[in-house]
Amino acid sequence: MAPPPPSSATVTQPVIDTAGSAPPDHQTQPLAVVTERLPWKHTFISLRVPNFRIFAIGHFIAVVAIWMQRIAQDWMVLELSGSVTAVGITVALQFLPSLLLGPWGGMVADRFAKRKILILCQGMAAVLAAVLAALALSGAVEVWHVYVIALVLGLVTVLDQPARQVFVNELVGPTYLRNAISVNSTTFQLGGLIGPALAGWMLTAVGAGWAFAGNAVACCSTVAMLLLLRKDQLFVSEPAPKSKGMLREGLRYALGKPTIYWPWLMAGFIAVFAMSLPVVLAAFADNVFNAGAAGYGLLNALVALGALAGAVASTRRRRLRLRSVVFCAGMYGVMLCLAALAPSMPVFGAVMVLSGFWCLMFLTGSNQLVQVSSNMGIRGRVMSLYIMVLIGGQAIGGPMLGWIAEHADPHVALLVSGGVPALAALTVAVILARKGSLSLRVDLKDRRQPVRIVRRAAA
């Protein structure tokens, strides 16, 4: 049984702001909205669910380890090749399968047991990490080895990510879904804070091979956690029956809802231009600040520190609005542009913290909006399309930003990384404002809300 709902007053009403651009039949189902500010003790209320608590522990261990592997892998490729472009190619190979096969992974997630899919995927990831560890520790590793392993790991991700997204609902049910998504993001960013710092230390102390070995052990622990879950306490949904046109059905469904389509579009701009930030940070650490592997790990940890704050803030978000998702994407782009102008590493690091905050506010908001806007029977396919854009976009952005950083300048690469998403967010905001007859009102006398978005009166 799930724990009782929070004591704060809740009402069920449609609150997703579509700016008046969709007909009623395209509106999402009603959502549970907290009308009072949650007590701090309810910030992570989804952890009261025993199965989700077990899953979160395993997820945290795995995230720390995967960040260790990601940082160690990127730095090892940079050392072996001397090329930032090669680092971008590694990122592209790892994310390219999601771009090409993402919808197929979502269809599999809708048709088969999510828990079994995750156990299979984590077992494969453990084998790949162990192979990479053996190559690195023996001194036989070459760049092409990393390319091949990154590509195969990307194929595993095609199945793992949509199943993982939908499995959260089976762990907590609809009552705590939004909170569980935010808790997952918090866990991911806490791991992202610890993982890069550990990787930076391990790269200088014992070498990259031990970081890969640690990830292999962590994947095995995730499998153990999945096996410990109580099946009788899962909110298992009926598998979708096999039928022709399942992928087209998911695409039509996504394009028919503004609360899925617009976050999907913004996720595309963020993914291509701003989600391959570690590639640009490698160039800054190596060529601009001369900070080495430890500095690279530190910069990634600072981004994760801000993201952790953003993830915690997202758990206390009372309303889920399309306009706020677009705003957060724009702020992330602005922060990256400001970082490109930073005169020193301390200032650069401080802006990276703010960048991480706004990035996570966007990611959690868009993820929640897409998930709660889709019915369970089709959610795997909808989420796979979202993940295809979010992860697959990095397959394009990684090599592109790496090439710009290497052949033009790291500062130019970071300006492109932030400037394009910021411009896209501004364009989408104008379109939504016109469709919804919205305008910006500034009232400096109102101390609580000096800037508000209001609906214009009809002529």
Characteristic terms for this protein:
459 residues; mainly alpha; Growth Hormone, Chain: A; two-stranded antiparallel ribbon; disordered N terminus
Description:
Keywords: Cell membrane, Membrane, Transmembrane, Transmembrane helix, Transport. Residues 51-436 form the Major facilitator superfamily (MFS) profile domain. The chain crosses the membrane at residues 54-72, 84-105, 117-137, 143-159, 180-203, 209-229, 261-285, 291-312, 324-341, 347-364, 385-405, 411-433. Residues 1-27 are annotated as: Disordered. With 459 residues, the protein is mainly alpha-helical. It has a single domain (48-231, 244-455), classed as Growth Hormone, Chain: A. It has 14 helices and 4 strands. The chain has helices spanning 50-81, 84-111, 114-138, 143-172, 177-205, 208-228, 246-255, 258-274, 277-288, 292-315, 322-340, 345-372, 376-407, 410-435, and strands at residues 10-13, 31-34, 438-442, 451-455. The strands form 2 sheets. A two-stranded antiparallel sheet has the order 1-2. The protein has a two-stranded antiparallel ribbon with strand order 3-4. Strand 3 (438-442) and strand 4 form a beta hairpin. Helix 1 runs antiparallel to helix 4 (143-172), helix 4 (143-172) packs antiparallel against helix 13 (376-407) and helix 5 runs antiparallel to helix 10 (292-315).
